[in-house]
Amino acid sequence: MGRINCSDDMLTEKTVADKEIYSGRVFKVVVRDILTPEGRHSTRELVFHNGGACILPVDKDLNCYFVKQFRSPLGKVLLEAPAGKIEPGEDPFDCVSREIVEETGYQALNIESFGSMVATPGYCSEIIHLYLGTDLKYVGGNPDESEYLAACRLPLSDALAMAESGKITDAKTLILIYKAARRFGI
Q1: Do 177 and 66 form a contact (C-beta atoms < 8 A)?
Q2: Would you say residue 2 lies in a domain?
Q3: Separation of alpha carbons 179 and 186, rounded Å
Q4: Cα gap 181→55, rounded to integer Å
Q5: Whether this model's pTM surpasses 0.85
Q6: In terms of domains, do 94 and 58 share one?
Q7: Is residue 137 predicted with pLDDT exceeding 70?
């Protein structure tokens, strides 16, 4: 199949008006009236979010540190890499440096960016910045008062097997596991 060539202008919608219908602590919801590239009117229901930062801590023996946490929208506990929401004006690196200690008790003396991901671009602006944390040092954890989670350790090879079998389903965590496995030759 050949390459399809078209400019972004041929795909870009024009905003006519935004109507904010909800604004909370974590996100706001907007109904946007738009013009399609052909000039037809339509609407979009959008969620605007400050974004997040996520880190996969990996020790010298290639063990990864995760958190188990109940996720209300799904009604179940998920296994995830430590993560948190970015406060307005906060640097993602600072966010992830704080979250790894709060959630696992470990500090990563080496933190490397693994890029970022767009969580659900069809309706949400959330971008999650991804990091690999190595050279771990235990300093003691301090989860937020409203967070109920349990830290756990798994070999990276086991985490990869769980990702491939569908036992780990969180997208940011899956990306980090696959990138770390590739980095470490697993």
Answers
A1: no
A2: no
A3: 10
A4: 14
A5: yes
A6: yes
A7: yes
Spatial distance between the Cα atoms of 66 and 96, rounded to a whole number of angstroms? 14
Give the pLDDT confidence score for residue 2 in this predicted structure: 62
Handedness of CA 98, 104, 109, 115 (dihedral sign): negative
pLDDT at 63: 98
Residues 157 and 179 in one domain: yes
123 plus 68 within the same structural domain: yes
Do 45 and 58 sit in the same domain of this protein? no
- Specify whether 79 is located in the same domain as 130: yes
As annotated, the active-site residues are: 145
Torsion angles phi and psi, residue 172, rounded to 5: -65, -40
CA distance 27 to 47: 7
Does residue 138 share a domain with residue 159?
Answer: yes
Determine how many CB atoms are found less than 10 A away from the CB of residue 73.
5
Across the chain, how many H-helices and E-strands are there? 3, 10
Reported as a single tens digit per residue, the pLDDT across 68-77 is 999 999 999 9
Asked if 29 contacts 20 with a C-beta cutoff of 8 angstroms, the reply is: yes
Residue 79 in tokens: 């296994």
Domain encompassing residue 177: 52-183
